[in-house]
Amino acid sequence: MDRRAPVGIRFEAVSKHYGGVRALDRVSLEVEPGEFLTLLGPSGSGKTTLLMVLAGFSRPTSGRVLVGGEDVTRTPPHRRDFGVVFQSYALFPHMTVAQNVAYPLRMRGRPRAEIARKVADALALVRLEGLGERRPDELSGGQKQRVALARAVVFEPRVLLMDEPLSALDKKLREAMQIEIRRLHERLGITTIYVTHDQAEAMVLADRIAVLRDGALQQVGPPEAIYRRPANAWVAEFIGLTNFIAGEVAGRQDGRLVVRTGVGTFTCQGDVPGGPVLICVRPEALHIGATLPNRLRAVVRERVFLGNLLDYRMEGADGLRLRVQADPSQAYVPGVSVDLAFAPDEAWVVPAAGG
Amino acid sequence: MARAATTVLPPLRRPARRRDGWNGLLMAPTLLFLLAFFVVPYANMVYMSVLYKPPDGPYLRVFTLDNYAQALGDLFYWRILANTFWYALLTTAVTLVLGYPVAYYIARAPTRRRGWLLMLLISPLLVGVVVRSFGWMIILGRVGLINTFVRWLGGPELPLMYNVFGIIVGLVHVYLPFMALSIAGALQNIPPDLERAARSLGASPWVTFRRITWPLSLPGVFAGTLLVYVLAVSSYVIPILLGGNNVLVMPIIIVQKLLDAFNWPLGSALSMVLFGLTALGVWAYVKLMNRVLRWTAP
Q: What interface predicted TM-score (ipTM) does this complex get?
């Protein structure tokens, strides 16, 4: 398939109110041309609403949406030239697979020969050659999803939107499809926005993740930055597992923060002016018996074998609950007291309030 | 994915064939009821339609095909039949045009509002047919609501009743719910995402309707039109009250023959002719319907 120059997307203070409910609250976001961005958030966070606004199915209460520098806020969906993949696949049940994929081309009045060629190409792209004459109800969930994908990209749309497209598939198939979607994006280079509530999926797919909560944007950044440098305690907790140690900024040292807590004083990374804070330490960053600057003692309470690692629940001084994930080569039994340590670079400080 | 589709009328679809003999027993009470109150009286009518009508009584037990010769040989009856079918078609067309948008609105309304809308929709059926027709007479009559108002404005008297217009108004009013409910049931089975998908793929609202919504709602349209047509062909009270003997339809003539003229054999024969022609029409329509549905059905 030929490549079109990818376009960027820009949300300018987009709000959507339903009665008194703010589904979107002044969301401003810039998507680079050709970028793969996931909108991540729990249900009700406004991620699907934002996608519907972008697709043109829902008009924002205020704010603007620009695509390739052009204001599309009031453009009806059929003139936006966006491919949309729905959670429910939304294949037309009264048409064959080939007719489904041909639909956007027919709407654009393309010649018959070109339609046939492009439909064949698109079906090959999603590895469904030879299934063109089937009806959608004769396909498996994964095949339906691929038809929906082929239909959404066959007309070389300016933007590809996906609304939790894999949530109806089982885990194995979902992971295989994630890789396929990623490959497809690399091959076509279409600016892609992908909605999901599954943070692992967001990590696998995205160049950047935009985290939404209650209609407001919390943080935008590459997966690693969101994981290692969450903007606030809510994001830290939503993405992966986190231990929070409450404390107060006591000072600064070599560009790092010194935080005094009930279980000791620690040196951490962070960008907080001062006051009450939370130190976020990921379970895999707490090392048992290591020689690292930050140390604390804890008692093993529970231990679960997860195959590639051991998952401990521990208790520190002051009743501090800690989750520790460690190499299974060395096991500690419940009741044993251990020394935990973490590096300053693996501890991130966020403000305690407003989380 | 599991949408709680509260279908009003089930889509026309062939049920899976089962070889489970005892399930047939579930049909028994209904079959007995139909046998006693439908099949037997109908058989009696078929029998009556081939009996001789003497000048001094309702019938004699003498076999004759005279009644059919009379029913089919008289142009008068053919004209009445044509009128009957024409008004039924008209009623069906008007209820379809009025009922489809209503059905669409109901099918796409939030669940709670849908309940109220359905109540509102079937409200015409909560009043008996005679009372409802008298209601229309108050509105449409020469000194009725509309004409009084028009006269007050200085306009001419409008012929709204005791004509075809009055009958169609009355029939559309009662049969609209049947049409709208059938279509709403089919529309509710169409996920809104299909329409959104069509829009995103480049179809305008009108093309989306023509290519996606309309073909997928055809089972409901067929069920509704069939139902309304059959009901309208056989309606008696509304044509007689709102047509006021100026407009004759077959059921009126049949009742006249049976009750006023005391000609049971001819009345029965006319019934058979009406039944036969209606059944023929329905059969042809169902054939067509199946052919169309084979192309569009999922």
A: 0.85
